Amino acid sequence: MLDLTKSYRRVLIKISGEALSGGESYGIDSKVLDVISKELAELNRAGVEVAIVVGGGNIHRGVAGATKGMDRSTSDYMGMIATLMNALAMQDSLERNNVYTRVMSAIDVREVAEPYIRRRAVRHLEKKRIVIFAAGTGNPYFTTDTTAALRANEIQADVILKATKVDGIYDVDPKKYPNAVKFDQISYMQVLQKGITVMDSTAISLCMDNKMKIIVLNVFNEGSIMKAVNKEKIGTIVAAIEE
């Protein structure tokens, strides 16, 4: 049971597009979407203010497009539209779980989403609506990891939950090396120095400058998000070394 006197009160959850595709190489797995939505709905009903940033890698990966000869800016804008598609799918799934939501987009698509305005986003959160941030920062050359770091700081979230397919950060790839060692906690600077790709360097630097804690966890482990919000020991914490 969540204890709001001890738990995080406002969280931003970064969900990659790859996580939404489940076991497939692309697209959206409706079962995965439903599992995630049910856990987020439970958080919302417990009184936690929840914001989400979704990636678009399951539909389009900007860098991959650029390396195949596509203009990088064009490719990145296509990626922003892919995140909007995922955001609308997430919104539909959450609302089928009886949660009020708002999709806020960094590019203008008023027919399906509100424009991103920081004060309005905070007000939605205060009214216990789940806010889904789409279209990245609205600028090419920035990832959705950077978007998550930026939006988390803007809305003054307590923590970023990086929802992935692995249960934390390891010294080497645990899929390739069975003796890989998991970090319970690691500093921002260690992540940068070791070249750990849990989030891009811009996102990590932004979190380091503003002391925004990151928890990396496996979204497919049932109850993992709830445990993290309740400050139970789970995944890997990225924070200042003195913490």
Please provide a brief summary of the model:
The chain has helices spanning 17-20, 30-45, 62-67, 72-95, 118-126, 144-154, 188-194, 201-210, 224-229, and strands spanning 10-15, 49-54, 101-105, 114-115, 130-134, 159-164, 169-170, 182-183, 185-187, 214-218, 236-239. With 243 residues, the chain is α/β, with parallel strands linked by helices.
Describe this structure in words.
The chain has 243 residues and is of the alpha/beta class. It has one domain: Acetylglutamate kinase-like (Carbamate kinase, 3-Layer(aba) Sandwich). 38% of the residues lie in helices and 19% in strands. The strands form 2 sheets. It has a 9-stranded mixed beta sheet with strand order 4-3-5-2-1-6-10-11-9, sandwiched between helices. Helix 2 packs across helix 4.
